[in-house]
Amino acid sequence: MNIFEKAERLKKLPPYLFKEIDRKKSEVRARGVDVIDLGIGDPDLPTPPHIIEALKKAAEDPGNHRYPSYSGMGDFKKAVAKWYQERFGVELDPDTEVVSLIGSKEGIAHFPLAFVNPGDVALVPAPAYPVYHIATMFAGGESYFMPLLSENSFLPDLNAIPDKITSRARIMFINYPNNPTSAVADLEFFRKVVEFARDNNILVCHDAAYTEMAFDGYRPPSFLAADGAKEVGIEFHSLSKTYNMTGWRIGFAVGNREAIDGLGAIKSNIDSGVFQAVQMAGIEAIRGDQSCVRDMVQVYSRRRDLMVKGLRDVGFEVESPRATFYLWIKVPEGYTSSDLTERLLEDAGLVVTPGNGFGEPGEGYFRIALTQKRARLAEAVERLKAFSM
Ligand SMILES: *Cc1c(COP(=O)(O)O)cnc(C)c1O
What we know:
Shape: globular
Order of helices and strands: HHEHHEHEHEHEHEHEEHHHEHEEEH
Structural class: alpha/beta
Oligomer: single chain
Radius of gyration: 21 Å
Number of helices: 14
Distance between the termini: 50 Å
Number of domains: 2
Largest sheet: 7 strands, mixed
Bound molecules: pyridoxal-5'-phosphate
CATH class of the largest domain: Alpha Beta
Helix content: 40-55%
Strand order of the largest sheet: 2-8-7-6-5-3-4
């Protein structure tokens, strides 16, 4: 055997969605085309200055240079619990119901190692953030994909899951406001999920990365605000999108103490927590002036309006999202998601993400991320006008 023969879990990885897109993007760029990248879900705005100041100050303190507590600083966990109380009306014990994460992706990726045995099933939405499925696979589990369809407002149809799957399912992933469809869920849906989870002994993992990126006064709820949710579930949260902190790697999980304890046990054997100076900057983000969040929402809502109108003028079918910085757009008749993505890059110099890259039920859609300035988005709209479908 080749000494570099990869382990089965790596061989089973689906092709990396952005790799082929990146290759084509470089190719088109090399031809001198001014490519506009609407592909990446990474804020183009900087982290607010007061948060950077807090990091600078904390980085100077030798007390922060040592290993942190793996589950998070007391003050960070208290700040999270207070924020959950004020923002969502959810009570949390900072000592047992909160754990800091090196970005929420880290927590999501490690979570199945704590609760999924080989052969167990995880209920995973599709289209979705790829980490849910891959983390399940790394733990030896099998994903059962719950299609998110427009006729169900991009919510999973819990009644459509076969009994023989439900009986093998240990965990279920959901994510609202949703990437990539930008759909939102109300408390009524979360209540149904709690009931389903209770009836079938399934641990719910709600990815809440986009709750603060919502428009026109809409305030997305926490899953944990549904009655009984804390008895069946955990919620992953992130400072990445709310405070333009994707590079800082800080997030947290909250909810059921046994779920938090299981995740903590995995983490304590793999990583050693979040740099304390970053946690102190996180405290400043959560507790400090929130006008930066309102500004961020304002920026994206203006971009949203410009792009939705532009797309509709050209004849694309798209909903104006109530949350997230994504537009989930129908691919016109006569194209597949991949065809259209390729044509948009070749003929218009626009990078978008094909819907099927997030799972087969995403076929027939493409995703735009509003992570470019308005002038660039306006230029993208001009190019779409010139693009003949
Ligand atoms: C961006 C994103 C995250 C956040 O990731 P971090 O690791 O906290 O930066 C989590 N889930 C979804 C669906 C996302 O789009």
